[in-house]
Amino acid sequence: MLDQFRGSLQAQAIDGVELVQADVLRMDTLPSSWRNYDLIVSASMLEYVPRHEFIRALNSLRSLLNKDGSLLLFITRENSIMRLLIGRWWQSNAYTLEELRKSFSLAGFSTVTLRKFPFLFSYLNTWGYIVEARG
Question: How far apart are the C-alpha atoms of 90 and 8, rounded to whole Å?
Fold first, then answer.
């Protein structure tokens, strides 16, 4: 995926973008400068973390935020359509609202706000959740 993105950047003559592969479950491999972020955004990625490692992944991301930082997460909603499309086809996880609330709490986030996609993109509410979490 990074190679495809790198190719797109080159095709559009976009310079100055640093791409680094990172594994949220292997924090020891991340550059030491990756700390104290105001905002971390994850879109459709944590679905691929093994379900039993999801809380640990959230906790790892929380550890990269500064004390007032936020994690903005776009994640697949558990429902019959997504179970078929995301679960079977993409071999990834989907989560219920209760699972997300519990997981974020166990990962140490103090504030969790769920948001909906804006009206023009409201069809995406069938696909997933927007979660804003603060440490």
Answer: 23
DSSP 84: I
Which two tokens mark 90?
A: 């993409």
How far is residue 120 CA from its own chain's centroid? 22
Return d(Cα 28, Cα 66) in angstroms, integer: 18
Segments forming the whole domain that contains residue 77: 36-134
pTM for the model: 0.85
Query: What's the pLDDT band for 65 if we cut at 50, 70, 90?
Result: very high
Beta strands (DSSP E) in the chain are 37-43, 65-76, 111-115, 128-134
> Is 15 a domain residue?
no
